[in-house]
Amino acid sequence: MYPKIIIITQGISRIVAPIVKGYEVVGIIESASRYKKKEKLGITPIRKFLRIILSSSETLKSFSHKSSIPYFYMDKGSSNELEEWIKKKNADIIIIYGMGQLLRENIYNLPKYGTINLHPSLLPDYRGPNPWFWQYYNMDKIGGVTIHFVDEKEDTGDIIFQEKYKITLGMRSPEMHDKAISDVGVKLIQKVLDNLSNLPRIVQPQKSPTIRARNISVKEHKEMIDWDSWGIERIWHLLRGTELWLNAFKQPKGLFKGHRWRIDDYEKCDTNGYSNGIVYKRKGEYFVVCSEGKIKLELNFSLKIFIKRIITDLFGV
Q1: Environment class of 219 (CB within 10 Å of its CB; exposed 0-12, middle 13-18, buried 19+)
Q2: Neighbours of 151 (CB within 10 A)
């Protein structure tokens, strides 16, 4: 008989479908982002309608309803309601992956087998919300996934299972997420669920050997790369891994506003006459320059992104 599971995550993360397909999920909780923006304007019917039109993918809420699984949206003000909601589900275990806040003891101790978290690093390394960035930043060659029990602190609970994987130079973040979560992480979660009555517990050291894997602020984006002294491989590796969000140099503008550069290959060459960290266009080729050479950039026009940007500018959606 399968255990009754509650999943806590953000959006339709890579763990959701495999667990829903293979086990008995009695509830899905969506964790609000810790950086959720406040609404400057009220949600008028037209703005609500435009948001639905602009949405490019299925939401976790719609997925839950389609799968006939109870859904709960969790933010900082919903602690009391959350506790009662979870009690009614009588879950055996809570599984977390991607959460914008820490659970309180009255929540994580509710299930029979406790609450576990999938953390994308080899704990105690890179405790915190953003291990991906700091592994790219430090050019780690080995990554890992940890399944651990949740306690009152951040990523400090007893370790259940861990597994390593290789991080190749220039690996893009979607590829790393596929390897770490879809391949390794889901397998380790399944291993936990198949051995709930006999799980190992490895106590973590109190202090982590690495810095806390914090999120970086928007104003830090342009300061994260040392264009003058870093080697081109390190810059290229970090840019490839963060090309979907890091604004380390100017993104496209004009007709291409809202698009992002795709990081192509790099070329070691003489860069005299160029300024480091600046995007150039020469002979139809875009590139950004560092002390050791050029990192080539690609730009693909998307009509969908263009229309979304126009509507956003007009209606502030």
Answers
A1: exposed
A2: 19
**Rg (alpha carbons) of the chain, rounded to whole number:** 22
- Residue 64, classed as helix, strand or coil, is helix
CB 231 within 8 A of CB 147: no
Residue matched to tokens 């703005």 = 47
Nearest by Cα to 233 from 298, 164, 291, 174: 291
pLDDT digits (tens, 9 = 90+) for 155-200: 999 999 999 999 999 999 999 999 999 999 999 999 999 999 999 9
Residue 7 and residue 19: Cα distance in Å, rounded? 9
Residue 207's H or E segment, with its range, is none
Neighbouring C-beta atoms of residue 213, cutoff 10 Å: 23
Spatial neighbors of 294 by CB under 8 A, at least 6 apart, are 266, 267, 269, 271, 287, 288
What's the whole-model pTM score? 0.90
